[in-house]
Amino acid sequence: MFYVNVSELTADTEDQKVFKIIAEAEEKHKKQILHAYRLITGENLTADILNREPLKGIMEGGVRIDDVVSFLKGPDRTLLDVLEVSMQLEINALDLYIKIFGKIEDVRAKKVFDVLIKEEKNTCLN
Q1: 43-62: b or e for each residue (b if 16 or more CB lie within 10 Å)?
Q2: How many Cα neighbours within 13 Å face the side chain of 36?
Q3: Per-residue pLDDT tens over the stretch 69-119
């Protein structure tokens, strides 16, 4: 999980707490997305599907978690770099959710993505 890994890049306990809170929200989002998938397809996938190839280690925007964390561990990287990358990833997720919302027809699944969109906006604005 990206934010769990990122929390280890800072020694500041308050920063670590923030990243762990975001990590918990991302886990909730995974469950919500699987729920929406069930509503649309009728298939009952479990969260372990996200831990299998080709989805293992991939974030919403199609970026590999390990690649981003390795980049952020690079020399001269600062907390500001971590925050900027994190914000860009959240914006990418928001954009993806908005696109999905516009394409799906199932009203119940739309509600799930409406909640996801609001939560991502909240993350980006706060």
Answers
A1: eeeeeeeeeeeeeebebbee
A2: 22
A3: 999 999 999 999 999 999 999 899 899 999 999 999 999 999 999 999 999
Give the residues across from 58 on adjacent strands. Answer: 64
The boundaries of the domain holding residue 32 are 2-125
Instruction: Supply the DSSP symbol for 58.
Output: B
Q: How many helices (H) and strands (E) does the chain have?
A: 5, 0
Rounded to whole angstroms, what are the CA distances from 26 to 31, 41, 43? 9, 22, 22
The total of structural domains in the chain comes to: 1
pLDDT digits (tens, 9 = 90+) for 53-83: 888 888 877 889 999 999 999 999 999 999 9
Tokens describing residue 20: 């762990």
Q: Are 82 and 10 in contact (CB under 8 A)?
A: yes
Closest by CA position to 30, among listed 8, 7, 59: 59
Positive or negative, the CA dihedral 56, 37, 28, 123 is positive
